[in-house]
Amino acid sequence: MTRFELETWDSGKLNVNKAFAGLLRHHDWQTFTAIWSRTADAAIAKKLRTDRITLRFTLNDNGVERPFYIKRHGRSSWKEYLKPLLRLTWPILGARNEWNAILDFHEIGLPTMTPVAFGESGTDSFLITESLENCDKLSDVLANSKMVPKIHSAHRQISVNVANLARTMHGAGLHHQDFYLGHLMQSQKTPETIYIIDLGRVQKQKPLSQRWIVKDLAQLNFSASAIPLFERLRFLRDYLGRPLTEKDRPLMARIQAKTNAIARHSRKNRL
After folding, report:
1. Which of 31, 45, 122, 140 sits a CA distance of 20 to 30 A from 193?
2. Catalytic residue numbers, as ranges
């Protein structure tokens, strides 16, 4: 479990992890405006919408180039406000939610990105995290393996580790909302370490309703569809921490129904 010591800069516009304060000061990145402007031309890593873009950059730290990511949020369109409201949920916009989620994950001992800084000014905001180097997406690990139809012991251990992560996350009242294999990163150096990333839509609700548990598990089930059913059922057993019984059939049915809905949505939108 980790609690970070944070500093507040630029009249409250910046929250900075004290461990990176010296590095940011050295490069004169002490204001929201300085960081916003100096990262504008960094290499694009991911661009989902015009108002949200993730960029990769490096900062020289005593002769070593250290890699970081900055997720920049601009003014959102009315569509991004209306879509969740029509689904009877509240819009999650800007970088603040992910910053808080990263801190929550570290506090309960869940491996995720290391927070560097969070900035917010008007309708613009950003989140800087240290790059997770030498890691592979679990979706790629499984796609590149010869695990079907027989599960290798290493892949069995991955399933156990992910089940433990999911159980810990849900036990703390946190649900991911994008809990796909592509958002789980396995360390090449320590394969037992799996990081959960892309926490932008994480929400906290304790006790956590079964609706959100089903959604997370269905997203994982959908992205693991190439894995034999018996292994996915074994994952559910590990997640619950006990053998499956007849009483679990309604839960399994809800997970499968939500999985089917995700598949239909993916086909319709060619995702």
Report:
1. 45
2. 178
